[in-house]
Amino acid sequence: MIYFDHAATSFPKPPEVVSGVCHCLQTCAGNAGRGAYQSSMRVSELLYECRSLAAELFGADSPERVVFTAGATAALNQAIRGSVKAGDHVLISDLEHNAVYRPVWKLAKEGTITYTVFPTFVADPDATSEQILQGIRERIRPNTKLLVCTHASNVCSAVLPVAKIGALCQSRDIRFVVDAAQSAGHLPVNLKDFSANAVCIPGHKGLCGPQGAGLLILEKNTVLEPLLQGGSGVGSLEPQMPAEPPERYEAGTLPLPAVAGLYEGLKLFRRRSLAHVRLREKLLWQSLARQLRSLPGVAIAAPQFSGSVLSFWSDTMNSEPLAAALDERGICVRAGFHCAALAHKTLGTPPGGALRVSFGQGSTLEEVRQFAAATREILFGN
264-292 pLDDT, tens per residue? Predict the structure, then answer.
């Protein structure tokens, strides 16, 4: 099998991650902070160690500013819905995944907020980051209280200037939330460098952890309204959720086996060179792009950006049947609209969407060659 769907979830998981999940299932009993016995105390230690490492890697001021969630989508919902109040105006980019777009759209549909989409100009090879910033400035209103945007697209390899966007938001007293679903594990991600109030990270993509655990990294003075209410092991006699993180946002039992696997993934990530990862992904991208460009009728989305994601389409076959034909040859890719209608509209993909190839830790140039050969054979029979 050639697996080119790492933007959805990394596979296979590293042996250390699998071992961490299994060891947790076999040895960790009880809930953190809710048992006066050794196993429960060990659970608390594991959670703290994982928080501490995540804080170190992603720029949190303390481990307590690292909140465990079910994934990046849950983190984004908490950051978005926990930030706004009635009458607020929100800005989002035209590259957003539905994990951002749908919560914002729903709040607007309910009449709680209004929102505006700002342009990223990713379809223009001559666009500059200043154009993006100017587009934001032109759309800021007196009641603009929140800006949410992706760091890296899940449809192409475009990367937004989030540090510059964060500085602009900070100067205008606008809360800034970064979706790092596609960048964590591939690019430097740091809350402080982004001037962000919150960074939302999945554990199961670039960090190679299991599904079921993500991270919400919070700036030290950022307080959100918690989405979930329930037990936390803190202040059990009080009817309200605790005032302080992380327990304020972690109602109920945490997905401990997934967190244990994520911890192992973070340890592996700490040992990797991001510069090497980035160079390797660009080499894979460039090799695939070069081979696809030789195929008549094939177009690549935002070809000026090279990285871990390449989406393309053919005027010979729609993306869904092409993906199905590749699957018959043991090649796993994603076709359609990738839960990102805004991005596809911005990139101008055809009615059938695009076929997405996304690289991970184990992807090789030989796999790229086999993929390109298989695509040529399916489209043209040779």
Answer: 999 999 999 999 999 999 999 999 999 99
Query: What span, in angstroms and rounded, lies between the C-alpha atoms of 208 and 186?
Result: 11
Cα gap 33→373, rounded to integer Å? 55
Same domain, 170 and 215: yes
139 and 225 inside one domain? yes
Query: 55-85 pLDDT, tens per residue?
Result: 999 999 999 999 999 999 999 999 999 999 9
Q: How far is the CA of 180 from the CAs of 43, 162, 221, 276, 286, in angstroms?
A: 27, 10, 20, 19, 23
Contact 193, 59 (CB under 8 A): yes
- On whether residue 8 sits in a domain, the answer given is no
Please say whether the beta carbons of 75 and 215 come within 8 A: yes
Alpha-carbon dihedral 140, 143, 146, 150, rounded to 10 degrees: -30
Can you tell me the distance from the alpha carbon of 32 to that of 38, in angstroms, rounded to the nearest whole number?
A: 11
Q: Which two tokens stand for residue 380?
A: 């043209």
175-179 sheet: strands from edge to edge: 66-69, 214-218, 198-202, 175-179, 144-150, 89-93, 114-118
Residue 197 · residue 148 · CB < 8 Å:
no
Q: What torsion, rounded to 10 degrees, do the Cα atoms 201, 226, 198, 21 define?
A: -20
As given in the structure block, the two tokens for residue 118 are 């700002």
What are the φ and ψ backbone dihedral angles of 151, each rounded to 5 degrees?
-80, -50
Q: What is the DSSP letter of 119?
A: P
Report yes or no: 301 and 311 within 8 Å, Cβ to Cβ: yes
Q: Name the pTM for this structure.
A: 0.96
Q: Which residues does 44 contact at the CB level (< 8 Å), separation at least 6?
A: 32, 33
> Does 298 lie in the same domain as 242?
no
Q: Tell me if 324 sits within 8 A of 170, measured CB to CB.
A: no
Residue 313 belongs to domain spanning:
273-380
